[in-house]
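Collaborator request log, item 7. Partner lab (contact: R.S.) asked for a structural prediction of Non-heme iron oxygenase ferredoxin subunit to inform their binding assays.
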Amino acid sequence: MAFERACALDEIQADKALAVTLGRYDLAIARDGDEVFAIEDTCSHAEVALSEGEVEQTDGGCQIECWLHGSMFDLRTGKPTNFPATEPVATFPVDVRGTDVFVDTETTLNGVTPA
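Returned to partner:
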């Protein structure tokens, strides 16, 4: 694993993802309370930035919405939870070190290869 600093923890708003580029990957960094997630920043349905959508906390966890067509993606698994998206997006390991967020873009948590 090769963790790289992605951002400061206080840069991530509760209901909005932060767009970050690490190497060749565009990521959406989001949080649910003390948990921080890194997900591929491209909707698998329409290829628009997920970081431009809202982050919503639900009973089952935390999701990010694609602003264009309303697809929701689970931040833990990258799986879409409603249509029109049917394919998952990559999720990456996150390590919070003090006030900084580090992401490993060499490994995906869900086995999905980033676009």
